[in-house]
Design goal:
365 residues, mainly alpha, DNA polymerase, domain 1, hpI Integrase, Chain A, 3 domains, three-stranded antiparallel beta sheet, two-stranded antiparallel ribbon, 13 helices
Length: 365
């Protein structure tokens, strides 16, 4: 039995690299101790070394059963992401980088089920079976997103001539219940209070959440907010979602004492000079996993304090800020709410973001 590597080197299982004085070599060792193949190149020729590195990894993946077969759905998914990456940044067909990052995670589940079959072999009943099974496992909404990605991949396959019809067309997704969470002002204030007490990343995230509430913004608009957005007149926030053919729109949120304090405090916390207002300790945008880990801890601290003080509190997310802000503004009678949300009309606002349980009206005159 082969022993575990003493130092992880990122190479596939059983593949080894040796560096001599003049040569660099790669070899795949079989269970009986013999070499399945050995490749070498002159050490002073980096192009040749890179070439044998790629070839050795490919052969090792084949021997380990991890290679991607041409013509399979897994290969098409890989080509789809390569195509997306090649598209110009301003192309209407290119997805946002954060969306592609999330799609790559979603693709892992799709590959487990559809990866080894040809795209043309996928039928609508296979997709319904996938949706049903994921719903049984407690992830109906996530399954919908994964099938939406599969639909985009298969539509790309139609472009390439790999299948005549997209089997995802006409599919009825899993029914889901819209989130109705409303965050009360005192809950936001408590998160900010505990964030200030804890400091560091906890405070950065709490300030980001407060800013999202004050500006009625989406999570991604806040997490990627840049320094240049802070102008003398106010905070310029890009409206994150737009349809194909639409130019990038922005909204100017005029300064209030609370908003200016939140932004200034976040910038003052930065250890490393960053273009982002709410960047991490390295000056980069927080990853979703990094954000979620820190925020979950902060919510735990808030719950503990809320229990001690005997006040109402339930955990919330950055995504809850936008609907909560819309709800509060509509309660106050804001008749220009679409300017704050960036929507073309109020239908989406009324359907998704307005979470008032009681509608207050005046009596008939």
């Amino acid at each position: 039995m082969i022993s575990r590597r003493k130092t992880p080197d990122g190479l596939p299982f059983r593949l080894y690299r040796r560096e001599g004085k003049f040569k660099v070599s790669y070899g795949y060792k079989l269970p009986n101790g013999t070499w399945a193949f050995r490749l070498s190149a002159q050490r002073n020729k980096p192009e040749a070394v890179a070439e044998i590195d790629l070839e050795a990894r490919r052969r090792a993946d084949e021997l380990n059963g991890n290679f991607v077969l041409a013509g399979t759905t897994e290969a098409l998914i890989s080509e789809y992401f390569k195509w997306q990456t090649r598209l110009p940044a301003d192309s209407e067909m290119r997805k946002a980088d954060i969306t592609l990052t999330e799609n790559r995670v979603e693709a892992k589940n799709l590959i487990k089920v559809f990866g080894k079959v040809k795209p043309a072999a996928i039928k609508p009943h296979h997709i319904y079976r996938y949706l049903d099974r994921r719903a049984e496992l407690g992830a109906p909404a996530k399954a919908n997103k994964e099938i939406a990605l599969l639909s985009a991949v298969l539509e790309y396959g139609r472009r390439l001539g790999e299948l005549p019809i997209n089997p995802c067309r006409g599919i009825k997704y899993n029914p889901t219940r819209p989130r109705q969470k409303y965050v009360q002002p005192h809950e936001i204030a408590l998160a900010l209070e505990i964030g200030r007490a804890r400091g560091g990343s906890y405070l950065v995230l709490a300030l980001c959440v407060q800013t999202a509430y004050l500006t009625v913004s989406r999570p991604e608009e806040m997490r990627t907010l840049v320094r240049q957005a802070a102008t003398d007149e106010g905070l310029v926030v890009p409206v994150g979602k737009r349809k194909a053919g639409q130019i990038q729109r922005t909204k100017l949120v005029r300064w209030s004492p609370s908003l200016r304090t939140a932004v200034n405090d976040a910038l003052a916390l930065q250890r490393t000079a960053s273009v982002y207002v709410f960047g991490n300790s390295s000056g980069q945008v927080y990853s979703r996993s990094g954000w979620n880990t820190i925020w979950k801890r902060l919510m735990g601290y808030c719950q503990t304090v809320a229990t001690e003080r005997e006040i109402e509190f339930s955990p919330f997310t950055l995504a809850d800020m936008r609907p909560s802000a819309v709800t509060d503004r509509m309660e106050e009678g804001d008749d220009r709410i679409t300017d704050a949300t960036g929507h073309a009309d109020g239908k989406m606002v009324a359907k998704v973001y307005d979470r008032r349980r009681v509608r207050k009206v005046r009596p008939t005159a």
